[in-house]
Amino acid sequence: MKPLEAVNDFVIKFANVNGTGSASANHLFAKALFRMGLPVCPKNIFPSNIQGMPTWYEVRVSEEGYLGRRGGVDIMLSVNPQSMPSDIQEVEPGGYFIYDNTKPLDRHLVRDDVTTIGLPLTQICSDQYKEPQQRKLFKNVIYVGALAALLDIDFAVLTALVSDQFKGKEKLVLPNIHALELGHQYAQANFECPIGIRVTRSDKVGDKIMLDGNTALGLGALYGGASVVAWYPLTPSTSVIDSFERYAKRLRIDPGTGKKNYAIIQAEDELAAIGMVVGASWNGARSFTATSGPGISLMSEIIGLAYYAEVPTVVFDVQRAGPSTGMPTRTQQSDILSAAYASHGDTKQVLLFPSTPKECFDFGALSFDLAERLQTPVILMADLDLGMNDNMSEPLHWDDEREFDRGKVLNAQQLEDMTQFGRYLDVDGDGICYRTYPGTHPEKGAFVTRGTSRDEYAAYTEKGEEYEKCMLRLMAKWETIKEYVPGPEVFLASQKTDTAVLFFGTSEESSREAVDYLVEDGIYLNAMRVRAFPFDKEVEEFLHSHERVFVIEQNRDAQLRTLLMAEFELGPDKLKSVLCFDGTPISARNIRKQILQQIPGHNITPLRPEQAADDAGE
Amino acid sequence: MTYQVPKFRNPSLPRNALGYTKADYEGSISSLCAGCGHDSISACIIRACHELSIAPHKIAKLSGIGCSSKSPAYFLGKSHGFNSVHGRMPSVVTGAAMANRDLIYLGVSGDGDTASIGMGQFIHVIRRNLNMVYVVMNNGCYGLTKGQDSATADQGSASKKNDPNPFNGIDLPALALQSGATFVARSFSGDKEQLIPLIKAGMTHRGFALIDVVSPCVTFNNNETSTKNYDYVREHARAGGIVDFVPMRDEITTRYQPGSTYEVTLHDGSVVHLHKVAESLDPFDRMSAMAALDEHRRNEEILTGLIYMDMDSTELHEVLGTSQRPLNQLSAADLCPGDKVLHNINASLR
User: Fold this and answer.
1) Is the pLDDT score of A608 beyond 80?
2) What ipTM goes with this model?
3) Which residues from A are below 8 Å from B80, CB to CB?
4) Which of residues 427-486 of A touch B (CB under 8 A)?
5) How far is A297 from chain B (nearest CA, A)?
6) What span, in angstroms and rounded, lies between the C-alpha atoms of B213 and B45?
């Protein structure tokens, strides 16, 4: 079979052992391509383990700018004997298998439709380095050097990156460059370079940046004015707090006193973390927590309190694969329903669905305005894929003219001028009432915030009509909320069509790519990306104006589809599901395949959920 | 039911330094059972705050769930309150205190709310030495659900309709001491003379102050076989340290026998006079306090009064190094670094 040929358009996957420093070497590789002006999309697929388990790192390179997972692997670089048998099976026909051939490849594994390239990495390291730690770490750098030759990566870009990476630790620069050279020289001397797949400089990156969504969320919270942070460590949300703290240490120190203009508390559990957020928000500070699905389960009790007592509350949910502990280091969009209706009794929670790091920053900051304006919990739904992977993103921007929207809060003078204050009195008719911070006025504005039923003046009551009035006002507020949350984005097909796709969050890039593929199959699809719950009128009209809408999401139970059906009272015929829930990000090829299976005339095999899992790696 | 407190007040009621009468510290009328110990504690809180001349709106009162946690509605009507959910008051008050270090935080909880569902949060708020007073209205039973034993019920004690409790009772002051509490006291709802100065000292203490108040449940746990009935507690209470609290601005008048009295100046200049009664107790020594608690327990006595106090306590804001200005008063200019900084951050990400 003819080896694959491609310039600036391929998927490479690295198979490593975790805890060996491979992620930073693989990142170096991806960043080098980014600096050569190529859109890249790296995804770290790692185990819930500290050392010794298989881990993968997939890099999509696409000059056309597709940033989602394509599906399939053109080049596999495997230095993990444990996963080698399955790694080589994953390579596309015509693809390349690069491996550590210090130990020869098992003959059973050899595929005649794949080009194998052996690099004696362990041997080179044994010859060059005495320390076991050096042998382990430099092995990764050496293969990056070899790839530079094989794929024609600008070597100067790599050396410049190494210098940047070790700024302040200059002693490490030369040994790393030396290791890159070792790999580069070996590949040059032993193979025809470049191979069929290669890169050239391009200009498709512009002013974009590369960062992970969690860093962006931490920055968004910092810019959004959060000053009390309470959290409990939980993968994959932990680095949100790391990011906030890292930047706060630089940017939130009072210049006069050196004191901190923020407080971070590592709570004893998620129950306490959310309690602290509610306490701080009640007392007029902007506050948030970051968590994942298991934390949402635990926090649901106090999220219900915040909903009913109408206390602004910001939660960043970086979703992972559930249920229970599930797959803690794999991605999913599977907290949609548990977040949307979090807590017992009749509740509805505001959700935001960012799909890029830029949006993590923007929505992260916006969460605080929304929570305070709407006096209710706002749960931002990111996921592991967005949160923990370096994503190419539009640069972050802050409008210096922008002011925080602190919502309806009465100050001492306003209270002074009032004849009557009712905490839950709907003065403006929008379902949102006026609140006061503790300590505002000596005589007026004090009340007891409570999770029990109360009247409009916050006094305890068990009168059914008072309770009902309050619950109906909360529904009226829900209507108001629709005017404030980010509306959907619509992408119309080049031809008129009655079929559409609807997606959210990290399914965006793969979905849009799949829509492009399907045009080649003669199928035109309008597309909508929803960015928040509650859904607004535009979402409703979009659904009504199409015969059939494929709802693309990364969970088993079609949770967003369920939410759409429940909120719009739609029957099951209109909304079809495209699902991926194997813990890896959904790929464009997988989406295309599932849509084709459900479009009459293309492939009428009905989709079974288990098929989605089997095909998800595509 | 909601009750209205009559508005009329005798104009000649005594006023404190801020011009407030005691009525300014009252709340709505209690809906607890007649004779409930909790109402006596509420009355002590009212008197303590009035006598301390704290502006009512500078106090925030927070509670969990249970009879005890309803009581904040019955005192300090001019203060903001937060009747949160069961066992979670410590976290809510932690967040609140982080947001505004200038208010006084009064947490009210019960034995179920603290020693069972809220045990984790109770220990951790102590560990962090949050600047607050934590009052436990401790009656050894669940009142609202009709009299089940709680985790502080003594072993062998039997409430009105239950068999003798087979389990070891949790001693909250002992637990607090072991968890690093910097102010630990116990009192009895029937002993105002002891309780009021303890509340004042706790409010002035910088850091976490636990006041465990045995507060008999007249409906379910005031029977003869209970160790938390009025008579039993009165007979078995033994004061360890008696506290006389003198605010900063007042002249010190009380005189105790020399040798048994300590004068402790608090950070705001107020003075706590501590009169030692129990021979074995050194209330400035944690080990001594723990030993004294244990000894009294073995003798079937209830050690009351001030049990332990750390005068060099460092509260959470000091530990974290947060700004003196309350975090909830920071403006956007203090909080948001602006676009120029973001520009540099972008550059570092290319």
Assistant:
1) no
2) 0.95
3) 436-439, 446-449
4) 436-443, 446-452, 455, 459-461
5) 16
6) 12
Render each residue's pLDDT in chain B as its tens digit; 350 residues: 445 556 666 778 899 999 999 999 999 999 999 999 999 999 999 999 999 999 999 999 999 999 999 999 999 999 999 999 999 999 999 999 999 999 999 999 999 999 999 999 999 999 999 999 999 999 999 999 999 999 999 999 999 888 999 999 999 999 999 999 999 999 999 999 999 999 999 999 999 999 999 999 999 999 999 999 999 999 999 988 888 887 766 665 555 555 577 777 877 788 888 877 777 888 999 999 999 999 999 999 999 999 999 989 999 999 999 999 999 999 999 999 999 999 999 999 99
A362 & A454 share domain: no
Rounded distance, CA A596 to CA A383, Å?
A: 27
Q: What CA–CA distance (Å, rounded) separates A565 from A562?
A: 5
Task: Give the strands of the sheet with B80-83, arranged side by side.
Answer: A448-450, B80-83, B59-63, B104-110, B132-138, B208-214, B183-188, B302-309, B237-246, B271-276, B261-265
Place of tokens 């704290």: B54
**CB-CB contact of A221 with A398 (8 Å):** no
**pLDDT at residue B265 in the model:** 81
Q: Radius of gyration (Cα) for chain A, nearest Å? A: 27
**Total structural domains within chain A:** 4
Asked if B157 contacts B226 with a C-beta cutoff of 8 angstroms, the reply is yes
Whether A446 sits inside 8 A of B77 (CB atoms) is yes
- In terms of phi and psi (left: phi > 0; alpha: psi -120 to 50; beta: otherwise), the region of B59 is beta
Distance between CA atoms of residues A389 and A67, nearest Å? 12
For residues A381 and A420, state if they share a domain: no
CA distances (Å), A473 to each of A53, A351, A465, A605, B43, in order? 53, 20, 12, 47, 37
HSE toward the beta carbon, residue A237, CA cutoff 13 A: 25
Nearest alpha-carbon partner for A564 in A541, A540, A584: A540
Q: What span, in angstroms and rounded, lies between the C-alpha atoms of A281 and A435?
A: 12
Verify that A521 and A610 share a domain, yes or no. yes
Q: Is residue B11 part of a domain?
A: no
Answer whether B321 sits within 8 Å of A259, measured CB to CB: yes
Determine the average pLDDT of the residues in A64-78: 95
Interchain pair B94, A225: CB under 8 A = no
Domain boundary among A165, A198, A231: A198
Q: Which residues of B touch A271 (CB under 8 A)?
A: 88, 91, 120-121
User: Which residue range is the domain that position A445 belongs to?
Assistant: 412-484
pTM: 0.95
Strand segments, DSSP code E, in A285-431 are 287-291, 313-319, 350-352, 377-383, 390-393
Count Cβ atoms within 10 A of the Cβ of residue B251 and give its class: 0-12 exposed, 13-18 middle, 19 or more buried: exposed
